[in-house]
Amino acid sequence: MPKLRLQSKIKLFFTGGTISMKPLAGRRGVGPSREVERFLSELGPHMPNVELEAVHWSNLPSPHMTPQRMFRLAVDIDAALADPEVLGAVVLHGTDVLVESAFMADLIIRSGKPVVYTGSMRFYSESGYDGIRNLLNAIKACLLPIPADSGVVLLMTDRLFAAREVIKVNALNIDAFEAPESGPIGYVAGDAVLLTRCSSGCADRRQPAARPAAIEPHVALIQCYTGMPATLIDHLRQQKTAGLVIEGFGAGNVPPQIVAPLDRMLADGVPVVLTTQCPQGGVWPIYGYAGGGADLEKKGVILGGCLSGAKARILLMVALGETRRLEAIREVFKSYTRPYSSPA
Question: Of 18, 157, 275, 337, which residue is the catalytic one?
Answer without folding.
Answer: 18
